[in-house]
Specification:
Blueprint (H helix, E strand, L loop, with lengths): L2 H4 L6 E8 L5 E9 L5 E5 L10 E6 L2 E10 L10 E5 L11 H8 L3
Antiparallel strand pairs: 1-2, 1-4, 2-3, 3-6, 4-5, 5-6
Length: 109
């Protein structure tokens, strides 16, 4: 199994996200990143519908990076308003917490 996906930390971090929605209209919105890793996160609280494959910008505090949308929650389900994002290869990790240190601190329990 791929190591970055094993190193996830549950968190609720306020983020600003912007890009293009399903109708190619620009949007900018405040949301929450949860279940973060050094390469991605789940973002919740989004009103615009976004297609998988779209590139979005995400800002957390003073840090920002571009991410690819990997999946989107289906309307009418518990995942509505959520997207899974993965950092583009040359982009920095924007979370100020060291994800691996958090995993060691939390442990398996």
């Amino acid at each position: 199994m791929d190591q970055p996906y094993k190193s996830r930390v549950d968190a609720i971090l306020p983020v600003r996200i912007w890009g293009l929605d399903n109708d190619s209209r620009p949007f900018i919105q405040l949301a929450r990143a949860k279940n973060i890793s050094s390469v991605g996160a789940v973002v919740q609280g989004l009103a615009p519908q976004i297609k998988p494959g779209e590139i979005v910008d995400v800002q957390y505090e003073g840090n920002k990076a571009q991410f690819r949308v990997i999946w989107t929650g289906r309307a009418g389900t518990q995942r509505q308003g959520e997207i899974g994002i993965e950092k583009l290869p040359m982009e920095p990790c924007i979370w100020d917490a060291n994800v691996l240190q958090c995993m060691q601190f939390v442990g398996n329990g």
